[in-house]
Amino acid sequence: MADVIRPWLYCCCNCRNHVALHDDIISKAFQAKNGRAFLFSHAMNVLAGPKEDRDLITGLHTVADVHCGDCREVLGWKYERAYEDSQKYKEGKFVLEKFKIVKENNW
Fold first, then answer.
1. Are 81 and 89 in contact (CB under 8 A)?
2. Could you tell me the pTM of the whole model?
3. Coil vs helix vs strand at 102
4. Among 78, 96, 88, residue whose Cα is nearest residue 35
5. What is the distance of C-alpha 9 from the center of its chain?
6. According to the model, what pLDDT value does residue 78 have?
7. CA atoms of 93 and 81, how far apart (whole Å)
8. Average pLDDT, the chain
9. Which of 20, 46, 83, 105 pairs as cysteine with 10 (C-beta 3.0–4.6 A)?
10. Pairwise CA distance, residues 93 & 78, whole Å
11. Positive/negative CA dihedral, 25, 29, 35, 39
């Protein structure tokens, strides 16, 4: 039988719910209020809270906190709208705080 290659996953630090794929990382150079964070193109098994405007390091954005779909731990946020043209690439993307997720080899 052929070997099956499975992707690296990121999981909620609290309950180990799968929340993102390693291959969906756009950038590891993001900063959250509690330290480093990763920008992902997609997230899974998460719930978005209400949208709100926040003045972040790169300007004003409309964001929604992202919670683990199982335990409801806040993991980061989703960019809903960027007001500056140079930041539009973030719209629809997810920032997950490094200390809130753990990397898992799914094998």
1. no
2. 0.90
3. strand
4. 96
5. 12
6. 98
7. 10
8. 93
9. 20
10. 6
11. negative
Which of 47, 57, 100, 45 is closest to 78 using CA atoms? 47
Torsion angle defined by CA atoms of residues 47, 62, 36 and 90, in that order, rounded to the nearest 10 degrees: 90
Give the pair of three-digit tokens for residue 79: 């960019």
Beta strands (DSSP E) in 16-107 are 18-21, 25-32, 35-40, 46-56, 59-68, 74-82, 94-97, 101-105
Question: Six-digit token pair at 20?
Answer: 């993102």
**DSSP symbol at 101:** E
Bridge partners of 30, per DSSP, are 37
The residue to which tokens 């099956």 are assigned: 4
Non-local CB neighbours of 16 within 8 Å, separated by 6+ positions: 102, 104
Model confidence at 106, pLDDT cuts 50, 70, 90, reads low
Work out the number of other CB atoms within 10 angstroms of the CB of residue 66: 24
